[in-house]
Design brief:
This protein has helices at 2-24, 30-53, 64-70, 74-92, 99-120, 146-166, 174-189, 204-239, and strands at residues 135-136, 142-143, 197-199, 202-203. With 240 residues, it is mainly alpha-helical. It has one domain (2-234).
Length: 240
Amino acid sequence: MKSTAYGWLMLAGILVSVLWWSRLARRDERLLIIYFAALISAFVGAKLVYLAAEGWMFWDDPQRWVIWATGKTILGALLGGYVGVEVAKKFTGYTQATGDWFALIAPFGIALGRVGCLVHGCCLGRRCAPAWWTIRDGHGIARWPAVPVEIGFNIAAILVFIGLRRRHLFPGQHFHLYLIAYGIFRMLHEFLRATPRVRGEFSGYQIAALAVAGLGIVGFVRRRHAQSVSQVGSAVSSFS
Protein backbone atom coordinates (compact mmCIF):
# COMPACT_ATOMS: atom_id res chain seq x y z
CA MET A 1 0.00 0.00 0.00
CA LYS A 2 2.82 2.40 0.93
CA SER A 3 4.76 1.68 -2.28
CA THR A 4 1.57 2.28 -4.29
CA ALA A 5 1.10 5.67 -2.62
CA TYR A 6 4.73 6.55 -3.33
CA GLY A 7 4.31 5.70 -7.02
CA TRP A 8 1.09 7.71 -7.33
CA LEU A 9 2.64 10.75 -5.70
CA MET A 10 5.62 10.63 -8.07
CA LEU A 11 3.27 10.25 -11.04
CA ALA A 12 1.16 13.17 -9.79
CA GLY A 13 4.23 15.39 -9.59
CA ILE A 14 5.21 14.54 -13.16
CA LEU A 15 1.63 15.08 -14.41
CA VAL A 16 1.32 18.51 -12.77
CA SER A 17 4.66 19.63 -14.18
CA VAL A 18 3.74 18.35 -17.66
CA LEU A 19 0.45 20.28 -17.60
CA TRP A 20 2.18 23.45 -16.43
CA TRP A 21 4.97 23.19 -18.97
CA SER A 22 2.49 22.43 -21.76
CA ARG A 23 0.92 25.84 -21.12
CA LEU A 24 4.33 27.46 -21.46
CA ALA A 25 4.99 25.49 -24.64
CA ARG A 26 2.09 27.28 -26.35
CA ARG A 27 4.54 30.16 -26.83
CA ASP A 28 7.13 27.94 -28.45
CA GLU A 29 6.82 24.21 -29.22
CA ARG A 30 10.53 23.75 -28.57
CA LEU A 31 9.86 24.20 -24.86
CA LEU A 32 8.06 20.85 -24.77
CA ILE A 33 11.10 19.14 -26.28
CA ILE A 34 13.29 20.82 -23.67
CA TYR A 35 11.00 19.68 -20.84
CA PHE A 36 10.94 16.02 -21.88
CA ALA A 37 14.69 16.07 -22.44
CA ALA A 38 15.04 17.36 -18.87
CA LEU A 39 12.66 14.69 -17.55
CA ILE A 40 14.37 11.76 -19.29
CA SER A 41 17.89 12.90 -18.47
CA ALA A 42 16.82 13.53 -14.85
CA PHE A 43 15.74 9.89 -14.51
CA VAL A 44 19.00 8.71 -16.07
CA GLY A 45 21.06 10.99 -13.84
CA ALA A 46 19.13 9.90 -10.74
CA LYS A 47 20.02 6.28 -11.44
CA LEU A 48 23.66 6.77 -12.42
CA VAL A 49 24.55 9.00 -9.46
CA TYR A 50 22.78 6.60 -7.09
CA LEU A 51 24.88 3.72 -8.41
CA ALA A 52 28.05 5.78 -8.04
CA ALA A 53 27.22 7.09 -4.57
CA GLU A 54 25.71 4.02 -2.94
CA GLY A 55 24.51 1.32 -5.32
CA TRP A 56 27.96 -0.22 -5.83
CA MET A 57 28.03 -1.15 -2.14
CA PHE A 58 25.34 -3.78 -2.75
CA TRP A 59 27.35 -5.76 -5.31
CA ASP A 60 27.41 -8.85 -3.05
CA ASP A 61 23.85 -8.46 -1.81
CA PRO A 62 21.48 -11.23 -3.02
CA GLN A 63 18.83 -8.56 -3.61
CA ARG A 64 21.17 -6.25 -5.54
CA TRP A 65 19.09 -6.24 -8.73
CA VAL A 66 15.99 -5.12 -6.85
CA ILE A 67 18.01 -2.51 -4.95
CA TRP A 68 19.62 -1.20 -8.14
CA ALA A 69 16.28 -1.11 -9.95
CA THR A 70 14.58 0.97 -7.24
CA GLY A 71 17.49 3.18 -6.12
CA LYS A 72 17.70 6.79 -7.29
CA THR A 73 18.77 10.18 -6.00
CA ILE A 74 17.47 13.72 -6.38
CA LEU A 75 21.03 15.01 -6.69
CA GLY A 76 21.56 12.93 -9.80
CA ALA A 77 18.22 14.06 -11.19
CA LEU A 78 19.29 17.70 -10.86
CA LEU A 79 22.64 17.05 -12.53
CA GLY A 80 21.14 14.97 -15.32
CA GLY A 81 18.22 17.31 -15.87
CA TYR A 82 20.52 20.31 -16.21
CA VAL A 83 22.62 18.54 -18.84
CA GLY A 84 19.49 17.43 -20.68
CA VAL A 85 18.14 20.98 -20.86
CA GLU A 86 21.42 22.39 -22.17
CA VAL A 87 21.69 19.69 -24.85
CA ALA A 88 18.05 20.13 -25.88
CA LYS A 89 18.42 23.90 -26.12
CA LYS A 90 21.45 23.57 -28.38
CA PHE A 91 19.67 20.95 -30.49
CA THR A 92 16.52 23.08 -30.92
CA GLY A 93 18.32 26.41 -31.16
CA TYR A 94 16.41 27.82 -28.20
CA THR A 95 18.49 30.58 -26.63
CA GLN A 96 16.26 32.07 -23.92
CA ALA A 97 16.65 31.23 -20.23
CA THR A 98 14.34 28.50 -18.90
CA GLY A 99 15.81 28.14 -15.42
CA ASP A 100 13.36 30.46 -13.69
CA TRP A 101 10.53 28.08 -14.58
CA PHE A 102 12.50 25.01 -13.51
CA ALA A 103 13.29 26.77 -10.21
CA LEU A 104 9.59 26.42 -9.37
CA ILE A 105 8.97 23.01 -10.95
CA ALA A 106 11.99 21.27 -9.38
CA PRO A 107 11.36 22.05 -5.69
CA PHE A 108 7.64 21.33 -6.13
CA GLY A 109 8.38 17.92 -7.63
CA ILE A 110 11.03 17.17 -5.01
CA ALA A 111 8.74 18.18 -2.13
CA LEU A 112 5.96 15.97 -3.49
CA GLY A 113 8.41 13.12 -3.98
CA ARG A 114 9.58 13.50 -0.38
CA VAL A 115 5.98 13.20 0.79
CA GLY A 116 6.11 9.83 -0.95
CA CYS A 117 9.31 9.04 0.99
CA LEU A 118 7.50 9.95 4.21
CA VAL A 119 4.62 7.60 3.36
CA HIS A 120 6.96 4.86 2.19
CA GLY A 121 9.26 5.20 5.21
CA CYS A 122 12.51 5.60 3.24
CA CYS A 123 15.32 8.19 3.20
CA LEU A 124 15.51 8.18 6.98
CA GLY A 125 17.50 10.39 9.29
CA ARG A 126 20.01 9.12 11.82
CA ARG A 127 18.98 7.57 15.10
CA CYS A 128 18.76 10.07 17.94
CA ALA A 129 17.29 10.53 21.39
CA PRO A 130 13.48 10.78 21.36
CA ALA A 131 12.19 14.37 21.36
CA TRP A 132 9.11 16.29 20.21
CA TRP A 133 10.73 16.92 16.83
CA THR A 134 11.90 13.36 16.07
CA ILE A 135 9.98 10.86 13.96
CA ARG A 136 9.80 7.11 14.48
CA ASP A 137 10.59 4.58 11.80
CA GLY A 138 8.75 1.31 11.19
CA HIS A 139 10.55 -0.27 14.16
CA GLY A 140 9.68 2.55 16.56
CA ILE A 141 13.21 4.00 16.58
CA ALA A 142 13.45 7.79 17.00
CA ARG A 143 15.21 9.48 14.10
CA TRP A 144 16.17 12.89 12.81
CA PRO A 145 13.24 14.16 10.66
CA ALA A 146 15.28 14.17 7.45
CA VAL A 147 12.32 13.98 5.07
CA PRO A 148 10.18 16.69 6.74
CA VAL A 149 13.21 18.99 6.88
CA GLU A 150 13.80 18.55 3.15
CA ILE A 151 10.14 19.12 2.39
CA GLY A 152 10.35 22.34 4.40
CA PHE A 153 13.48 23.43 2.53
CA ASN A 154 11.80 22.99 -0.85
CA ILE A 155 8.59 24.73 0.19
CA ALA A 156 10.70 27.65 1.42
CA ALA A 157 12.56 27.64 -1.92
CA ILE A 158 9.28 27.89 -3.85
CA LEU A 159 8.18 30.87 -1.76
CA VAL A 160 11.56 32.58 -2.23
CA PHE A 161 11.49 32.17 -6.00
CA ILE A 162 7.89 33.40 -6.23
CA GLY A 163 9.09 36.50 -4.37
CA LEU A 164 12.09 36.93 -6.67
CA ARG A 165 9.87 36.64 -9.76
CA ARG A 166 7.44 39.25 -8.47
CA ARG A 167 10.28 41.67 -7.72
CA HIS A 168 12.12 40.85 -10.97
CA LEU A 169 15.28 39.99 -9.05
CA PHE A 170 18.04 37.80 -10.52
CA PRO A 171 16.14 37.04 -13.76
CA GLY A 172 17.47 33.96 -15.53
CA GLN A 173 19.41 32.90 -12.43
CA HIS A 174 16.78 31.26 -10.24
CA PHE A 175 17.61 27.66 -11.07
CA HIS A 176 21.31 28.35 -10.58
CA LEU A 177 20.48 29.78 -7.16
CA TYR A 178 18.43 26.69 -6.38
CA LEU A 179 21.28 24.37 -7.37
CA ILE A 180 23.69 26.30 -5.14
CA ALA A 181 21.30 26.37 -2.18
CA TYR A 182 20.17 22.75 -2.48
CA GLY A 183 23.70 21.48 -3.03
CA ILE A 184 24.96 23.21 0.12
CA PHE A 185 21.87 22.13 2.07
CA ARG A 186 22.27 18.47 1.08
CA MET A 187 26.01 18.47 1.72
CA LEU A 188 25.40 19.60 5.32
CA HIS A 189 22.15 17.71 5.86
CA GLU A 190 23.81 14.48 4.79
CA PHE A 191 25.60 14.33 8.16
CA LEU A 192 22.17 13.80 9.74
CA ARG A 193 20.83 11.27 7.23
CA ALA A 194 21.15 7.51 7.57
CA THR A 195 23.02 6.92 4.33
CA PRO A 196 26.05 4.63 3.81
CA ARG A 197 29.40 6.31 4.45
CA VAL A 198 32.32 5.91 2.07
CA ARG A 199 34.94 7.45 4.37
CA GLY A 200 34.46 8.43 7.99
CA GLU A 201 31.37 10.59 8.28
CA PHE A 202 31.21 11.38 4.57
CA SER A 203 28.86 9.77 2.07
CA GLY A 204 28.99 9.60 -1.70
CA TYR A 205 25.98 11.88 -1.82
CA GLN A 206 28.04 14.72 -0.37
CA ILE A 207 30.31 14.55 -3.40
CA ALA A 208 27.23 14.73 -5.62
CA ALA A 209 25.89 17.63 -3.54
CA LEU A 210 29.12 19.58 -4.03
CA ALA A 211 28.88 18.86 -7.76
CA VAL A 212 25.32 20.27 -7.79
CA ALA A 213 26.39 23.41 -5.93
CA GLY A 214 29.46 23.79 -8.17
CA LEU A 215 27.32 23.45 -11.30
CA GLY A 216 25.04 26.16 -9.96
CA ILE A 217 27.96 28.50 -9.28
CA VAL A 218 29.45 27.95 -12.74
CA GLY A 219 26.06 28.50 -14.37
CA PHE A 220 25.42 31.62 -12.31
CA VAL A 221 28.79 33.17 -13.24
CA ARG A 222 28.40 32.31 -16.94
CA ARG A 223 24.88 33.72 -17.10
CA ARG A 224 25.93 36.88 -15.26
CA HIS A 225 28.82 37.37 -17.69
CA ALA A 226 26.52 36.82 -20.67
CA GLN A 227 24.00 39.31 -19.29
CA SER A 228 26.76 41.89 -18.69
CA VAL A 229 28.05 41.49 -22.25
CA SER A 230 24.50 41.85 -23.59
CA GLN A 231 23.90 45.01 -21.55
CA VAL A 232 27.20 46.55 -22.72
CA GLY A 233 26.34 45.67 -26.31
CA SER A 234 22.90 47.26 -25.99
CA ALA A 235 24.43 50.40 -24.47
CA VAL A 236 27.00 50.71 -27.26
CA SER A 237 24.30 50.17 -29.88
CA SER A 238 22.11 52.88 -28.33
CA PHE A 239 25.04 55.29 -28.14
CA SER A 240 25.88 54.69 -31.78
